[in-house]
Amino acid sequence: MRTATGHGSKSAISPRVREVPSHGTVLGASGQGIQEGILSRIRVARDALHPAEGRVADAVLLQPSQVVHLPIAELAASAKVSEGTVIRFCQSVGCRGFQSLKLALAADLSQPTLVLQEDVSAADGAEPALVAQKVFAADIAALRDTLKLLDPPAIKRAVEAIESASEIVFFAVGSSLSVASDAAGRFMRIGHRVQTSADVHTQIVIASLISPSAVAIAVSHSGASSEPVEALRLARARGATTIAVTARHPSPLTRHADIVLITMSTETRYREEAMASRIAQLSLLDSLYVAIAVRQPEASLRALRETSEALSGHRVR
Fold first, then answer.
1. How far apart are CA 191 and CA 300, in angstroms?
2. Buried-state track 70-90, b at ≥16 Cβ within 10 A, e below 16
3. Domain for residue 146, yes or no?
4. Same domain, 105 and 232
5. Whether residue 290 is found in the same domain as residue 195
6. 40, 145, 206, 230: least surrounded by Cβ within 10 Å?
7. Are 66 and 266 in contact (CB under 8 A)?
8. Full pLDDT tens readout for the chain, 317 residues
9. Number of domains in the chain
């Protein structure tokens, strides 16, 4: 029987309280555990929360600096929920209670922040340099937030699974397809057998015939695109190890994943499924690639050398 790992692991928690990433704990001055990256983890879990808990999440994300100083009764009133719902929300995002949530928020807010993270507006059109600053700030924030959500045990399991796999198969559509194609090319360059296809029907066919000794990696920012979800479901049913790279957990995609790797980016009015999400995905998959390469240095360097020589004749001199 397969055991889910990392963010996709199952634990003895209430069926109501959805599991969210709970790593990155540090100790505060009082010795109480403080969850790092709490704002990022709330954004990841937002869509999977109970509607009432979702209202608490929205209130926290709207004014986190004020929530740090609010009593629980005031937060409950502003979200139009009971105090018990606030407590359940805290537990759903990995905090023991309201005080633990406030400590985690304070820790997040105390870290150096980037300026110009606000949404690009129509008024910025006259200042392209300002637009560039905001876009770059959002991309940097996506990398920083994804790093906060990094789950070391899940990364290790993913690397070990890929290292021992007979082949690596990538599934993705839309804007995530270019990320999957880039990662497939990288793993191919260091000698791994890789399959990927831009045609969604071909992806389904590949998934339906995948070997149990293979690793299937599905990339989907929303975690809800039907084709990657179906492909990962089929791959898991065949016995392959399945990895989901997504910004939503729980999600339809992560239901079929043995290992879940979370990326983070904030969508804005002009940047729905923005480049920031793909930058985070690329960096996460690049981390897996580099980890594999350094664990197999001789084979990786030899494959890189041979493929570079093969490609050298195709460069304009």
1. 7
2. bebeebbebbebeeebbbbbb
3. no
4. no
5. yes
6. 230
7. no
8. 354 444 444 333 333 333 344 444 433 433 344 456 898 889 888 988 999 999 999 999 999 999 999 999 999 999 999 999 999 999 999 999 999 999 999 988 886 544 444 566 667 777 888 888 888 888 888 898 899 889 999 999 999 999 999 999 999 999 999 999 999 999 999 999 999 999 999 999 999 999 999 999 999 999 999 999 999 999 999 999 999 999 999 899 999 999 999 998 765 444 555 688 899 999 999 999 999 999 999 999 999 999 999 998 888 87
9. 2
Dist. CA 8–CA 248, nearest whole Å:
12
Residue 232 structure tokens? 């990962």
305: CATH: 3.40.50.10490
CA atoms within 13 A on the CB side of 280: 32
Contacts of residue 265, Cβ cutoff 8 Å, sequence gap at least 6: 138, 141, 142, 145, 146, 221, 247, 274, 276, 277, 279, 280
218: in domain: yes
Range of the domain at 259: 152-312
Q: Is the dihedral of CA 297, 298, 304, 305 positive or negative?
A: positive
Measured at the alpha carbon of residue 262, what is the angle toward residues 257 and 263, in degrees to the nearest 5? 135
- Pull the structure tokens for residue 207: 């998934």
Burial of 45 per CB tally in 10 Å (0-12, 13-18, 19+)? buried
Residue 22: CB partners within 8 Å, gap ≥ 6?
A: 35, 94
